[in-house]
Design goal:
Helices cover 46% and strands 14% of the residues. It has 10 helices and 9 strands. The strands form 3 sheets. Strands 6-9-8-7 form a 4-stranded antiparallel beta sheet. Helix 1 packs across helix 5, helix 4 crosses helix 6 and helix 4 crosses helix 7. The two termini are 32 Å apart.
Length: 301
């Protein structure tokens, strides 16, 4: 499990640690020292001792964060997930303590940055990560419930001073905006979470229908001639699904329209190219080129 030492992951570690023997669980807590705070080593020692008290395996990894233009938050997240992949085998699972309020934050951030319908799904309960699986068991749990558990069980946890820095978009929403929304619309995070589940269900149904009717075209190499026979909205969905299958960031509507103009409405050549990337660098940048009558989807090198 991922263990930062904050209240969320501390509650997850405590629950799993106290039930490990009962359910014969082989649990290892992984702590990532980002070296971004003067307190980093103190936090690492705290996490080690907490796991020792619960007789849990503990691993600590130290990383140096380089934002590379995508921001510190994104770079730190990327470093964490690279380490998680390092320890995941074919049967391995990494658990994180993301909860309902995290879902709301993520959806709001995506809205403000200009997301499509996929971005309104929120966080997935489980997904493939490296050779294993990423599991989020707290997605039905609120921050209040986590705080209540920590208080009732007298848990000691870390308070990261960077969480008070409202220069970070997520912190600004969490500290300045959401308390006001929750005061006016009680339990609004749960409502946002319910909405995201409905959208996810609709998206899954649409995806199944798309594959049923056009699955032969959903690929990283797509025949331009075959696409030209279809309604343009269907063409866009085929391209989106093909990009998604390559684990490449989904282009925004402006880029997608440029793709359609370049490769469907025009006569592309081997020199034709449309490329895109996400500002936060969270997903791979992509590009589309043309060769031998086919539209080719690939990552930017």
């Amino acid at each position: 499990m991922a263990y930062s030492g904050g209240i969320d992951s501390t509650v997850l570690v405590d629950i799993l640690g106290k039930n490990a023997h009962k359910f014969n669980l082989d649990i290892t807590a992984i702590h990532i020292n980002h070296n971004l705070s003067k307190n980093s080593h103190t936090w690492e020692n705290h996490c080690r001792e907490f796991c020792s008290d619960l007789n849990l395996n503990f691993i600590s990894e130290s990383v140096e964060i380089c934002s590379s233009g995508g921001g510190i938050e994104s770079a730190a997240r990327k470093a964490r997930y690279e380490i998680f992949c390092k320890y995941l085998n074919n049967d391995g699972q990494i658990l994180t303590a993301h909860h309902i309020d995290d879902v709301t934050e993520t959806i709001f951030l995506r809205l403000l940055r200009g997301t499509g319908i996929d971005g309104l799904q929120g966080l997935k309960r489980h997904r493939k990560l490296g050779k294993g699986q990423l599991i989020r068991p707290f997605l039905e749990v609120s921050k209040k419930e986590i705080k209540d558990y920590a208080k009732n069980n007298d848990l000691n946890y870390i308070s990261d001073e960077s969480n008070e820095n409202n220069e970070f978009d997520r912190n600004f929403l969490r500290n300045q905006i959401f308390p006001k929304l929750d005061k006016r619309w009680n339990d609004f995070s749960s409502r946002v979470s319910k909405m995201s589940k409905i959208i996810e269900e609709r998206n899954n149904n649409f995806s199944n229908l798309l594959y049923k009717n056009y699955g032969n075209l959903i690929s990283n190499v797509i025949s331009k001639k075959e696409l030209e026979t279809l309604d343009i909205d269907i063409v866009k969905e085929i391209i989106r699904s093909s990009i998604r299958n390559e684990n490449i960031s989904i282009p925004n509507s402006k880029i997608l329209n440029e793709i359609i103009k370049t490769f469907i409405y025009s006569n592309p050549s081997a020199k034709s190219i449309v490329s895109w990337s996400r500002a936060d660098k969270d997903q791979q940048a992509g590009k589309i080129t043309y060769k031998d009558g086919n539209i080719i989807i690939s990552t930017q090198e």
